[in-house]
Amino acid sequence: MPAAAQTTVGRRTASAALFERARRLFPGGVNSPVRAFNAVGGTPVFITRGKGAQVFDADGNAYLDFLGSWGPLILGHADPDVVAAIAAAAADGTTFGASTEREVLLGEAVRAAVPSMERMRFVSSGTEATMSALRVARGFTGRDKIIKVDGGYHGHADTLLVAAGSGAATLGLPGSAGVTAAAVGDTLLVPFNSETAMAATLQAHPGSVAAVIIEPIPGNMGLVPPAAGYLQALRRLCDEHGVVLILDEVISGFRVARGGAQGVLGIRPDLTCLGKIVGGGLPLGVYGGRADIMAKVAPDGPVYQAGTLSGNPVAMAAGLATLAKLDAAAYARLEKLGQRLERGVRDTIAESGAAAHLMRVGSAFTLFFNRGPVTDFASAKTADTARYARFFHAMLDRGIYLPPAQLEAGFVSLAHCEADIDAFVQACLPSLRTATSD
Ligand code: KE4
After folding, report:
1. Which ligand 1 atom lies nearest to the CA of residue 155?
2. How far is the CA of 430 from the centre of ligand 1 (A)?
């Protein structure tokens, strides 16, 4: 049982100095926008190392980590078995641009855990996985349009960077500079948890929708569970319209269960996208599903997709070592820790009287600064982001590292212990009071 982390947070001058240098190198001083703390203000913390449930910043401050690198680190930081597997693989060579046994082993492990992935292809990120899955779906159906959920995030491929237009189900508008109207001209948006909107959109575009892509348990509008029966209805609607159902399980895959959300919910998608946990903290994504659809992928079929480092042996080793530890006992423990967190935070919110509520699925959670319920992007956006920002910093100053944005998900790992959860809960009350003292 790992000991509770002792957290003491002092000055962050070294992080500030590093951030100044980083700003002269990288847009926003970061290599991924959400790390810049723009949603919560202040200067991003520069992490020097992680061990178990803790991360340490450039000033030597210790934090209990409930971000977990946005999801991959279900075992915690520097798991000894994962590190040993990486070192052993690297000692044999880091990349060959040729097939290796390790990719066969990880592919077999993924298919055993997610049987709907009859055939698959390894890539190097979640974005590559979803981008490729959509291309295959379009190649398989010969159709152009795709449907995504407003507030769903599937990486930064042009076709998926769309902003909601007016109305419930409209053609997307470019959600980023540099994305052309043509690139998103075939992307339709619907609200999450609305079977009616999905049915209406499919009926409005008969025979022209290639795929629906959806996070089965969205984590990118904050954590928002699907309404009972919603995903089953999507499966039925996709069957009726000959549409490829793509579940983006980059977050939920191996997080909510070894078989992902599809295993828990009893849904068999046509394609699945994985990332994060499956790579054990190294760059890895996977897309795969029905053999007849994947038969379209080059070199078997006409849909081209490639990658120099796809199936990278070191990433394969990290994934294999991670999946090897994700057994039923692991998920039972994650659920027990998640329940402890949920009970403690809910009691603390009640005691504080704050207009906030916790949403949790297994070891993933979001503390929304509104009274809820949050059922889609529109209701998620009613959360008070200024209060979340104050809460984030109050918790950070107490040695608890959370996602630096309200509409994201936090994570508990197998490296956390009961005392770490209690430390989180203990830091909550004063932090809630600070957050809501406006
Ligand atoms: P990557 O390309 O970042 O590996 O994966 C894209 C992606 C795809 N699908 C889902 C459901 C995702 O959540 C993501 C990436 N998640 C974000 C945070 N929610 C990664 C953090 C970041 O962008 O820095």
Report:
1. 6
2. 31
Among protein residues, the one whose CA lies closest to atom 5 of ligand 1: 126
Centre of ligand 1 from the C-alpha of residue 251, in Å: 8
Residue nearest to atom 9 of ligand 1 (CA): 154
* Average of per-residue pLDDT values in the chain: 95
pLDDT in tens, 417-436: 999 999 999 999 999 999 99
In the chain, CATH 3.40.640.10 sits at: 80-323
Q: What's the rounded Cα separation, in Å, for the pair 215 and 220?
A: 9
Backbone angles phi, psi at 171, to 5 degrees: -65, 135
The residues of the chain that CATH labels 3.90.1150.10 are 13-79+327-436
Q: Tell the residue nearest (CA) to atom 8 of ligand 1.
A: 154
**pLDDT (mean) for 376-396:** 97
Per-residue CA distances from 427 to 6, 59, 60, 419 (Å): 13, 21, 20, 12
Residue to mutate (ligand 1; options 70, 161, 252, 273; most atoms within 8 A of CB) = 70
The pLDDT tens digits for 101-129 are: 999 999 999 999 999 999 999 999 999 99
| Digit-coded pLDDT (tens) for 148-176 | 999 999 999 999 999 765 444 455 677 88
Residues with a catalytic annotation lie at 153, 248, 276
Q: Ligand 1 pocket: which residues have CB below 6 Å? A: 32, 34, 70, 125-127, 130, 153-155, 215, 219-220, 248, 250-251, 275, 285, 408
Work out which ligand 1 atom sits closest to the CA atom of 35.
24
DSSP string, 96-151: -SS--HHHHHHHHHHHHH-TT-SEEEEESSHHHHHHHHHHHHHHHH---EEEEETT
Residue with tokens 């760059």: 283
Q: What's domain 13-79+327-436's architecture? A: Alpha-Beta Complex (3.90)
Instruction: Say which CATH architecture domain 80-323 belongs to.
Output: 3-Layer(aba) Sandwich (3.40)
pLDDT at 167: 45
Contact 44, 404 (CB under 8 A): yes
CA of 32 to the centre of ligand 1 (A): 10
- Using CA atoms, how far apart are residues 294 and 11, in angstroms rounded to an integer? 52
Q: For residue range 5-37, what is the model confidence (pLDDT) as tens digits? A: 555 688 999 999 999 999 999 999 999 999 999
Residue nearest to atom 13 of ligand 1 (CA): 251
pLDDT at position 163, please? Answer: 79
